[in-house]
User: Which sequence fits this backbone?
């Protein structure tokens, strides 16, 4: 066995989102992916008062995610502003931080200067492209302060047709990495439903920027609410986290033929999340309005898992047409008629679309390729 290449720190939010199998998988792609490349990894998390109602449950959730994948001794959870640390002790974290090759800080979540200051390279990983850049450009908030390099899943940032400002920063773009051995191709399931998983609104309200309003998934999804009525032979099942206060939207979706389930019922653990994806026929994906209206070029981590599982993805176009091959395995739409045509195309040639989906994942999303390229761009050897 080759000696480790060094240590990469991954900063992110897991403890506070207990029961979110999707976020667990996102961070696991980084941890597992870099470990496959020969790196030691250490996951850094924090939990402040008010972040969750049951701290013991949050801590147990973090452990339940880390341990099955061999990271039971590779995480450190800072509580109460550094007053208490669970997992790797604080003194050891500070020592490792001074020796680490870099910190990949997902959305800048690790913000304690005592941990940040010893790190030689602090990389901001943007997985929610648009809001942060527009906040900074408008002078509302700067989430990027304190970082040296900047990486985004918004593949079109910096292009003239993308409305997301660069804020004068040099952005490296990266597709969602997938550890393919964790997401093997599943046998085709033509009798399954077209599904997806996500938040109906999210944590940010609509944002006004240069005369355009940029919103959340709810603001884009309503345009396609009649899809089940136009495809009566196809089942559509959405695992949306919808607040009870959105009862009118819930009733509208059900009346138009959408089956709704709670993510906490079908995707509350990494295994349950993976099972939900693999049991589907395909994904019908409508992202946040922000990603669409800005032409961000984002292909979500969720869609990447569907593709890796051999599940076709029918995606509301975010400007991905020249980033990935579209038309087989991955299809895009901009209006209801195109969405209907996409459903019919997948149903008509289902098995070839399943094979093409997996092929896209292998060529474009394989963590070995994506993370190796990222380290080269970051000039880390």
Assistant:
């Amino acid at each position: 066995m080759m000696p480790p290449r060094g240590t990469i720190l991954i900063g992110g939010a897991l403890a506070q989102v207990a029961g979110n199998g999707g976020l667990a998988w996102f961070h696991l792609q980084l941890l597992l992916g870099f470990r496959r490349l020969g790196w030691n990894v250490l996951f850094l998390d924090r939990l402040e008062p008010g972040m969750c109602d049951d701290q013991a449950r949050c801590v147990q959730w973090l452990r339940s995610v880390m341990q099955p994948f061999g990271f039971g001794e590779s995480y450190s959870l800072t509580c109460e502003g550094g007053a208490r640390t669970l997992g790797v002790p604080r003194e050891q974290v500070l020592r490792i931080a001074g020796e680490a090759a870099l910190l990949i800080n997902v959305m800048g979540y690790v913000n304690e200067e005592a941990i940040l200051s010893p790190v030689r390279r602090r990389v901001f990983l943007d997985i929610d492209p648009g809001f942060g850049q527009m906040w900074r450009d408008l002078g509302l908030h700067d989430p990027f302060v304190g970082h040296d390099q900047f990486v985004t899943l918004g593949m079109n940032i910096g292009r003239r047709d993308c409305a997301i400002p660069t804020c004068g920063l040099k952005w490296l773009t990266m597709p969602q990495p997938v550890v393919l051995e964790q997401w093997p191709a599943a046998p085709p399931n033509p009798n399954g439903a077209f599904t997806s998983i996500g938040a109906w609104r999210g944590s940010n309200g609509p944002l006004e920027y240069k005369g355009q309003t940029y919103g959340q998934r709810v603001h884009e999804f309503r345009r396609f609410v009649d899809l089940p009525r136009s495809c009566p032979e196809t089942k559509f099942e959405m695992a949306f986290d919808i607040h009870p206060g959105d009862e009118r939207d819930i009733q509208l979706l059900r009346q138009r033929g959408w089956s709704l389930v709670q993510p906490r019922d079908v995707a509350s653990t990494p295994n349950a999340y993976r099972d939900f994806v693999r049991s589907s026929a395909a994904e019908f994906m409508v992202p946040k309005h922000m990603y669409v209206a800005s032409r961000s070029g984002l292909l979500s981590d969720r869609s990447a898992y569907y593709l890796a599982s051999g599940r076709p993805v029918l995606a509301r176009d975010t400007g991905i047409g020249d980033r990935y091959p579209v038309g087989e395995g991955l299809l895009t739409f901009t209006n209801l008629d195109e969405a209907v045509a996409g459903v019919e195309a997948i149903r008509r040639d289902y098995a070839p679309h399943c094979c093409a989906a997996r092929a896209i994942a292998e060529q474009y999303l394989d963590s070995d390729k994506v993370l190796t390229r990222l380290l080269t761009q970051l000039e880390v050897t």
